[in-house]
Amino acid sequence: MPHSTCRSGNGFRPGYRNRRSLLGSSGSIRSHNSSDTIHGVWDALDAAGAVYDDSAHGRIPNFRGADEVAARLAELDGWKDANVIKAVPDKAQLPVRVRALSEGKLVYMAVPKLAALKPFYLLDPAALPVSPQEAATSRVAATIAPMVEVDSLRPVDVVVLGSVAVNRDGARIGKGAGYSDLEFALLTEAGLIGPSTLVVTTVHSLQAIDTPIPVTDHDVKVDLVITPDEVIECTDPQRPEGILWDHLVPAKIAAIPALQSRMKSAER
What share of residues in the chain are helix, strand, coil (percent, to 5)? Predict the structure, then answer.
C-alpha cells in the first residue's frame, strides 16, 4: 500500500476571524487563494466524470471510488481497533458509515449546522430499526437516530472528515462553513477527542493536490489522507486544544446552541 509523508491545515471559514498573518495589506489572501483551489478541484472532477452528481461544484464531492476508499480505510489497524466513529454526513463518506455500522461500531454524525442543543445523531448498530445501508444516510439518520448532547458522547476513536481538496502535506479545505472544525473543537474541549484519536479524510485522487493551503490555529490537521490509490500518512498533525473563542464571531456563537452552552459553562 503506497504511503507518503504529510503535514496539514485549512483555509478561511465564514464565522471565523481571519488571521492577519495570512493576509496581504489589502486583506486578500497573499498567494494561495482557497476559492481558486476549490473551484479548480471541482472543475477537474467534473472534467474527469469523477462524481456521481451532475457537478462536483458547491459540495463535498460525491466521488466515484468511495467504496474502494472505505475498504482501504477498513484495512488499517487504527480502524480495526476502533469502537466509536465520528463521521461527516456527506454522501462521499456514506460507504465509511455503512462499513462502521456493519462492523458493529458506534457512529456519531452532526446535526446540520450544529443547530440544536443536542448536536449529534447517535447511530448504535445494536439498536438500528433499519439496515446499516439505510441508517447511514443522512436523511434516514435524521428520522431514526436519537440526538445527544456533547457530554453524553463516548470518546471517539476515529474522526472521518470530508474535503473538497487536501494537499499532500495534509492541509484540507471543506465547503467553507467550518462546521467540521467546530465539531472537532467541541469534542476536544469535552475530552472526547485526544492525541490517540485517528483523524482521516477520504477523497478522490484528483482531490489530493500539491498546492499549498493556508493554515490557521483553529484548523484540524489530518493524520491520513485516503484515496482509491494510496494512503498518505501525516506525521505532524495540528489539533486545536479546544474552542478558540477569539476566532469566532458573535453571530456564529449565537447560531450554535452547543457553543452558547459551552461558553456559559466556561464563564461560571
Answer: 35, 15, 45
Burial pattern 52-68, b for ≥16 Cβ within 10 A else e, equals eeeebbebbbbbbbbee
- For every residue of 131-185, DSSP letters joined together read -HHHHTSHHHHHHHSPEE-GGGSPPPSEEEE--SEEETTS-EE-SSS-HHHHHHH
Distances (CA, A) of 107 to 13, 101, 122, 221: 26, 7, 6, 21
Q: Categorize the per-residue pLDDT at 16 as very low, low, confident or very high, splitting at 50, 70 and 90.
A: very low
Instruction: Summarize pLDDT for 47-70 with one digit per residue, the tens.
Output: 999 999 999 999 999 999 999 999
Query: At 23, is the pLDDT very low, low, confident or very high (cuts 50, 70, 90)?
Result: very low
Cα 260 to Cα 149: distance, rounded to the nearest angstrom:
13
* Cβ neighbours of 137 (radius 10 Å): 16
CB 164, CB 61: distance < 8 Å: yes
| Confidence bin at 8 (pLDDT 50/70/90) | very low
| Mutual angle of helices 94-102 and 66-74, in 10-degree steps | 40
Of 48, 36, 63, 54, which Cα lies nearest the Cα of 176? Answer: 36
**CB contact at 8 A, 200 and 175:** no
pLDDT above 80 for 31: no
Distance CA(134)–CA(131), nearest Å, equals 5
User: With a threshold of 0.90, does the pTM exceed it?
Assistant: no
Sign of the Cα torsion 20, 26, 29, 35 reads positive
pLDDT: which is higher, 73 or 213: 73
Distance CA 10, CA 57 (A): 19
The owner of cell 430499526 is: 129
Answer yes or no: is pLDDT of 14 > 60. no
